[in-house]
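Example: DUF485 domain-containing protein.
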Amino acid sequence: MSTTDTGGPPDTSETIWERAHESTEFRELRSRLRRFVFPMTAVFLLWYLLYVLLADYAHGFMSTKVFGNINVGLIFGLLQFVSTFVITGLYVRYANRKLDPVAEKIREDIEGDSAKEQA
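Written out as structure tokens, the predicted fold is:
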């Protein structure tokens, strides 16, 4: 009967995760995510804060009729929903191009390590 000694304790899922977490690919993935999320969050919060401040302090401007019973405040309110959908679409496109390929590589590496651990 022969055994193969790898020279150390077997990898656990925790050590595999630690290696993945410390990898260059994971750091790149986290960096790419932050490059999108932080600026987009700041832009959206500023846009929302503008809407709230205008609604609170610029009653005359927000109640300006654009056509019929539609005023500037209503348009700005609806644009909040539109901007949410636009940001979601931008994120999906960004994730498909920039995040998913790196995440897939990390997943393949982890699954490969897990397969080695079970063998």
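The longest strand covers residues 65-67.
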